């Protein structure tokens, strides 16, 4: 998983360090001292993360937990947004809210089937239009996701299929995703490989359904269904590689996602 660069390549190619919403880091910049909350949490219960390298150029997030060690809220301290979660008795995230600079900006409800598998959620789009995602399963394993949105402005309240995705999974991980348009035409294909390490980002996936946390590469709703961490992701023939670093307590502290022309970095705190 780790990148290897020859001296010749380093001489001729400038690697751009990219964070999710900021793109101004340099490869050899040293991470500054960052003040994050302390917690008595153990294992993979991180208390915050930073996108990119120099703090001045990037985004810092802080995480808090409830008494059941579930993520209660995520705060974007750079842009003033707080993302809150409400859970049902089975531990499913049922209500998500975003508070931006003290004002309620977004509420999304998640629905589950009798087996406590995600069935539907209806996130509003930034344009104000409605949208809907539905999920189907085969023997308890995700097999299809369907995306509905407004496709005819003459009928602004009518949702139609825009895209749907089919999945194949092996050993608890999605290994293939195919994307189709509303006319059943294949428009994209993605394959995945995995490490042997536990997917510690599952608890963040439902918070990141519109990528406000900038973690779509490792924590999107569909990645909630994965048991392990992604090693490679190949989208229409273009591959991304994922490299992870750990501290002496075997806690994940760093992530580098590399693909042609860019590198994305994350740093986690405990």
Structure in words:
The chain has 270 residues and is mostly beta strands. It has one domain (7-269): Porin (Beta Barrel), CATH 2.40.160. Helix content is 4%, strand content 48%. It has two helices and 17 strands. Mean pLDDT is 84; it is low at 1-42.
Under CATH at level 1, the class stands as Mainly Beta
CA gyration radius, whole angstroms: 19 Å
Low-confidence stretches: 1-42
Question: What is the CA-CA span between the terminal residues?
Answer: 24 Å
| Strand percent estimate | over 45%
What's the tally of helices? 2
Instruction: Please state the second-level CATH architecture.
Output: Beta Barrel
The secondary-structure class comes to mainly beta
Secondary-structure element series: HEEEEEEEEEEEEEHEEEE
* Main sheet makeup: 16 strands, antiparallel, barrel
The counted number of beta strands is 17
The total domain count is: 1
Q: Name the shape in a single word.
A: globular
| Biggest sheet: strand arrangement | 2-3-4-5-6-7-8-9-10-11-12-13-14-15-16-17
Average pLDDT works out at 84
Tell me roughly what share of residues is in helical segments: under 10%
